[in-house]
TrEMBL record:
<protein>
    <submittedName>
        <fullName>PDR/VanB family oxidoreductase</fullName>
    </submittedName>
</protein>
<dbReference type="Pfam" id="PF00111">
    <property type="entry name" value="Fer2"/>
</dbReference>
<dbReference type="InterPro" id="IPR001041">
    <property type="entry name" value="2Fe-2S_ferredoxin-type"/>
</dbReference>
<keyword id="KW-0285">Flavoprotein</keyword>
<feature type="domain" description="2Fe-2S ferredoxin-type">
    <location>
        <begin position="234"/>
        <end position="319"/>
    </location>
</feature>
<keyword id="KW-0408">Iron</keyword>
<feature type="domain" description="FAD-binding FR-type">
    <location>
        <begin position="1"/>
        <end position="103"/>
    </location>
</feature>
<dbReference type="InterPro" id="IPR039261">
    <property type="entry name" value="FNR_nucleotide-bd"/>
</dbReference>
<keyword id="KW-0479">Metal-binding</keyword>
<keyword id="KW-0411">Iron-sulfur</keyword>
<dbReference type="InterPro" id="IPR012675">
    <property type="entry name" value="Beta-grasp_dom_sf"/>
</dbReference>
<keyword id="KW-0001">2Fe-2S</keyword>
<keyword id="KW-0560">Oxidoreductase</keyword>
<dbReference type="InterPro" id="IPR050415">
    <property type="entry name" value="MRET"/>
</dbReference>
<dbReference type="InterPro" id="IPR017927">
    <property type="entry name" value="FAD-bd_FR_type"/>
</dbReference>
<dbReference type="InterPro" id="IPR036010">
    <property type="entry name" value="2Fe-2S_ferredoxin-like_sf"/>
</dbReference>
<dbReference type="InterPro" id="IPR006058">
    <property type="entry name" value="2Fe2S_fd_BS"/>
</dbReference>
Length: 319
């Protein structure tokens, strides 16, 4: 994966527990181009890599802008960003990748964001605004103090395009979503990002009237229930490099292979980013990721070995 060295030009407190980081080239060379919905890998040392969505608008050609929420249950990434990274720090990032592309043929875009899930959505809104496209952004947070980029989204250019929702009770949120999603405008697409329970509620509410191909999601983490599901031991055979290995219950495929000198490039290790995507030549994967679509999972020809397992006694991987 291609990497770039960048300098942290500015850090801003965007909301309670949320900081934005403006990144610029260390050499003065242009940063690689990106599309709305893209994310970058941020390398934080000691093998720690985390993915953060770009918040940029189309006019941002000389910087990247990301925002990071400091999580109480941080696995190290958000804590490092908030406590170790300073203005002037030089860090390594991956070039932008996009698993959350805007469908260019849509006639209208309904953008829904919960909390820090606004980060890829705000980039979409800025690009759609510049393009003169029809869109609206519905942004759900705990309070104004927890609303990132509130000043920007409250500006005159977004007048009539953005609606804020603060501290909705569960029943109030369900009622509002039913009213919002009961009818799909002709040619409209729905884009959604936020905490898992919020996304699950939106997706299940939209399912009554929005076809699956019109609903686009980006998760920040895999489903904890899926990751904690029942596990059995199985065998993995490597078709190209040779070797058959036993994968014990509770041990990821990538960990066992690494112990035998077979290293698969990884990043999130949660089945979110797609870095470790691996071909499956035989056997039935037990998919536990949120990267592959339902159709891709049914094809059984690829998997995420960082979290997924096997339903068959043997998996033959294209490695």
């Amino acid at each position: 994966m291609t990497t770039v060295s960048v300098r942290v030009k500015r850090i801003s407190q965007e909301a309670c527990d949320i900081k934005s980081f403006e990144l610029v080239s260390t050499t003065g060379a242009p940063l690689p181009s990106f599309t709305p919905g893209s994310h970058i890998d941020v390398h934080l040392g000691s093998g720690l890599i985390r993915q953060y969505s770009l918040c940029n608008g189309p006019d941002d050609t000389d910087r990247y802008l990301i925002a990071v929420k400091k999580e109480a249950a941080s696995r190290g990434g958000s804590q490092a960003m908030h406590e170790r990274i300073k203005e002037g720090s030089v860090i390594t990032i991956g070039t932008p990748r996009n698993n959350f592309l805007l469908e260019p043929s849509a006639k209208h875009y309904l953008l829904l964001a919960g909390g820090i899930g606004v980060t890829p959505v705000i980039s979409m809104a800025r690009h759609l605004l510049a393009a003169g496209a029809s869109f609206e952004l519905q942004y759900f947070t705990r309070s104004i103090q927890h609303t990132a980029f509130h000043e920007l989204l409250s500006g005159p250019e977004f007048n009539g395009r953005v609606k804020f929702h603060y501290a909705l009770e569960p029943e109030g949120l369900r009622a509002y979503l039913r009213k919002l999603l009961w009818h799909r405008p002709e040619g409209a697409d729905l884009y959604l990002c936020g905490p898992r329970p919020f996304m699950d509620l939106v997706e299940s509410t939209a399912a009554a009237t929005w076809p699956p191909e019109a609903v686009h999601l980006e998760y920040f983490a895999a489903d904890p229930l899926s990751l904690a599901g029942p596990q059995e031991s199985f065998q993995v055979k490597l078709a190209r490099s040779g070797g058959t290995y036993s994968i014990p219950a509770g041990t990821p495929i990538i960990e066992v292979l690494a112990e035998h000198g077979v290293h698969i490039e990884t990043s999130c290790e949660q089945g979110v980013c797609g870095t470790c995507l691996t071909g499956v030549l035989d056997g039935i994967p037990d998919h536990r990721d949120v990267f592959l679509t339902d159709a891709e999972k049914k094809s059984c020809d690829k998997m995420m070995p960082c979290v997924s397992r096997a339903k068959s006694p043997l998996l033959v991987l294209d490695l």
